[in-house]
Amino acid sequence: MAEEKNLVRSLTVDIAAPAELVWSVLVDLERYPQWNPFTVKVESSLRMGEPVNLYLPNPASPGELVHVIEQLVAFEPHRLLSWEMFASADNPDAARRDQVIEATGPDSCRYYTTDLFLGPTADQVMELHGPWVKQGFDAVALAVKARAESLIGNRR
Fold first, then answer.
1. From CA 34, how far away is CA 41, in angstroms rounded?
2. Residue 139 burial (CB < 10 Å; 0-12/13-18/19+)?
3. What angle do CA 7, 67, 64 make, to 5 degrees?
4. Which parts of the chain fold into alpha helices (H)?
5. Is residue 53 pLDDT above 70, yes or no?
6. How far are the Cα atoms of 6, 76, 115 from residue 123, in angstroms, in the given order?
7. Taking the complete model, does pTM exceed 0.90, yes or no?
């Protein structure tokens, strides 16, 4: 598939916590600053089609944040959380981010996240930002694992 060359995928982490708990970490937007190194702030109603305001560290200007507005396009509890940036007259860039949780047992799951760059600028965006997004997504996967496992440890 031609689009796959513009797909960034994090490492896959096995998490010693139920899928429901990992889901609760992903949708607890207020606590993102406590654990998420890549998307340090998120503002959204988490209603389908509504805006998702993302704040990411700016790789070109340390200490500054990049504000990106996307739309919620998938909300499948305990399985899939996705948002998408659509191309516009002002910005031809487009991408879809999927955060995937796969239950592997009653007390365990697997997590990974992907970003598929879309539209006429996909090749350029992948070339310019792909490695930075991959590094950030790998950090998020490890952080989701650490956050969920610390929360499950606190429950025991």
1. 9
2. middle
3. 105
4. 19-27, 32-35, 122-155
5. yes
6. 6, 29, 13
7. yes
In single-letter form, the type of residue at position 37 comes to P
Phi and psi angles of residue 20, each rounded to the nearest 5 degrees, phi first: -60, -40
Residue 27, pLDDT > 60, answer yes
Amino acid symbol at 4 = E
Cα→Cα distances 35→3, 124, 141, Å: 31, 30, 11
Tokens 């896959």 sit on residue: 12
Q: Please, which residues have CB within 8 angstroms of residue 89's CB and are 6 or more apart in sequence?
A: none
Superfamily classification of domain 2-155: START domain (3.30.530.20)
- Give kind and range of the element (H or E) at residue 81: strand 80-85
Give me the pLDDT at residue 4, please.
85
User: What is the amino acid identity at position 148?
Assistant: A
In the chain, where the domains are located: 2-155
